[in-house]
Each structure stands twice: as structure tokens, then as C-alpha cells.
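Handoff note, outgoing to incoming analyst
You'll be picking up this chain. Sequence as last confirmed:
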Amino acid sequence: MQPIGHRARPLIAALAWPAFGAIAALLPALWMRGFTVDDALISVRYARHLAQGFGWRFNVSGPSTDGVTPLPWPILLLPLARAAPVAVLARAQVLGGVCWVVVGAALGRASGSVAGAPWWGRAAPLGVLSVSVPVAAYAFSGMETPVATALATAAALLSLRPRTAALVAGFAASLRPELAPWALALAVGCSLARKPTLAGALPAALLAMAPLGACAVLRAAVWGSPVPLAVIAKPSDLAHGLAYAGAACVVTLVPIAAFAPLALRREPRAMALAVAGLVHVAAIAAAGGDWMPYARLMVPIVPSLAYAGALASPWMAPAAVAARFTLAVGVGVALLLHGGADGRRVGADRAALIAAARPVLSGARRVASLDIGWVSAATEADIVDLAGVTDPRIASLPGGHTSKRVDGPMLVSLEPDVLLLYALHPPPGGLTAWRDCAYARTLEARLASDDTVADRFAAASWLPLGAAGAGYVVLVARATGCPGSP
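Most recent structure output, in case you need it:
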């Protein structure tokens, strides 16, 4: 009979790897828990209106619009949506965090089970993943990103079952449409790794495209276009996209650690995941990147690259693994020292802004703003989306996300009684000098210099955002009786 201690060792090893993966996911995510983005509250508003029986619409009195790129996300939020906006956001953050920790445990278990791999080869990718600030930041962001990441990682872990992996990858793409090429590449790659014929890969390819295809059909039937409204509102810019994709490969760290072409070629599944990763990099470059911080579009596939590194680790030299690990962690430390974790304050700053704005906007009927997420949490009034993300009228105008060709006469025709303009500092000579603020975004600078806007609106207050001096000038229509109107 074997000694008890001898029998316990396999059990301890079996539990240690999932625990290592869960800890590697949880601790950095908790450290970055204060991060969120404005768009998270846009999805929350759609979900709340669904829960309240108003239908799929951003403004209760407005038309139904396709203002949520991850189409299934408000439906997933529906059970959490019967509360105030900030409370729903908090619930979405917990949901994302739980998904990410479960993924971390599953990734740890799968990495620990790689046959023939030394422990350091399996542990190194998880170690690098644990210091990837972008992955940690979006875990508790309240966005759909951690759920998409969970699905994309599950697809990678299911790579021995290509059709199942393809379908799960397709569901990830339904939440993040730019993942569609990645899902297709993963489906084909995993199929070829098992049965090296293109005909055998076709069913998996079809499964990978099915969820996003269903979303496209639904969009076309309801809103007349198979693509999200954001595609029109935020036209792609290849130059920006190439810079974004290149930077994303660096700041997420894991691509550095997993870059071992010779070893990846020895393991077909690892190669399939790596090729799918390259396809995704090309896709986000073609999409023009993203305006959100921390390489959001790259985050969902990062854990799958960590798994690819673990799969290929039996063919990696210890010195090469150590060199890549050291380089990746060194880059991560350098980024942290240069303000890489400043986003930890975003949630608190946004919450303070929402609280300060509620009494200021309490009498508003229609508020115009370029940033609409936090505004939607501060007021139930209709919101004129000057970026066009939720408004087809503005989305179709020339210009980018922050430079739509909205001028004074058009703004007035939309009949807002409050206009919010983001500025880098308060008006230098008091509120009457609001036109002299430093407006960093093209649209707001244009409106501030427009005489029609100056004739129609007067500055009523200043809403600070954070400690850097930035904030919002609150302009009130002169003909209204909105509180704060001169």
C-alpha cells in the first residue's frame, strides 16, 4: 500500500494549478477594480429600459436604435437591471470579475495538465498574464469584455473538440464582432490540427460564424443594417489601427512571452491558437483600433495566447523561456512606473461626477453631450448623442467619433436644453469665459467657437472630473427655465 503522503501529491498538484490560475486572475483584477469606461453605462441604460418595459431604446421617448455593439450584452444584463444605473454597473462588474476568475482557474488547470512540459514552462505564461494590466483592468470594468474573454479562452481550452470550440468562439464574436476573423481562424486551425483537410474544417467554420450571423440577420431585420451602428459612427482608420494593434501586442505582455515560433510549430494546437492570434491583430488593425484605454480589443484573446505558450513549452529551451518572461515582466513594470495603473481612479472619479451632476441636470428635458454613459446615469432625460453611437442621424455625418460635423444650427435643431462640453481646465476667467477653455476634442472645440451656440446657450456651472483639473462646462439654453439658467 502506498503511503498517504505519496497518494496526496497528485491531488495537491491537481488543485494547485487551478488555484494558481485563479489567484493570477483575481489579485491583479482586484488591484485594478476601480477602472471602468463610459460606454459601460450605455449598455446599462439599454438593459434598464428593457427591464422597465420600454423596449430596446436609449431614450425612452426616442426610437429603437442599435447603440450596443455587443448585441447580446443587454440581454445578459437583464436579470441585473432592475436598479439604479450605478448599482447595475456594480453588478455587471461583479459578473465580469467572477467570469474572469473562473477562466483563470480553468486556464491554470489546463496549463498544468500539459503533458511533458516542465513546471516553469507551464507557469511562465500564467505569471506574465498576472501582470498584464489591460487584462486585469477589464475584468471588473462592467463591460462585456471579461465575458467575451471567458468565451474566447474556453474555446481555446476546448481545442481538442474543434466544433465545440468553434461554436464557443462564435459566441465570443457575437459579443465582440472584431473577433469574427479570430473565431474563424481558430475553428479552421483546430480542425486541421485533428483532421488535416479543408473539407473537414468547413462544419467548424460554419459553427464559428453562426452566432454573429444570427446577430447580423437580427440587426438587418430590426434596424436595416447588418453591422452595428458604431461601425458607421466610428469609421476605421488604418494608420491608427496599425499603431493600436502594435501597441496592444506590447502592453498586454503575453504575446511577448508566447513568441516562440519554432516551439509553436511543434504543437499543432498551439500553432492554431497563435495563427488565430495573428489574424486577430490584423483584424483590429483593419478595424482602426479603439478609443478606449488598455488595448480593450486585444484583451479577449490574451489568455488563449498564454495557453498556446503552455502547450508549446515542452519544446522551449529554459533560457529562452526565462528571457521572454523577463522581457515581458520588465515591460509590464516599466508601463506601471509610467502611469500604467492610473485607470484605477476612473470609477471613483466618474461616480463623483455623476453625483455632482444629478442636481445640476435634475430639471433638464434633453441633454446634448459627446460622453453619454455617465450622463445617462445622472439623469433620466433624453440624451442627444453627439458621437452618434446611439443616434443614426449623427452617426451618418462625416467625421470620427469625436469630430462629427455637428454645427450650431444643427445642434439647436435637435432642441437640447442643456449642452455639456468637456474641457481640460475650468474657464480661465469664470463661467462667462467658457469659450476660452481648452477643448481637446474637435467637436467640442467647434461648438465652443460657434456663435449660434454662444447666442443660444449660457454657462450655468462647472462639473469637475478627477484631480487633474478637467471637467465639463454646463451650458443651459437661454429660453428654458432649467435650474441654473441665467
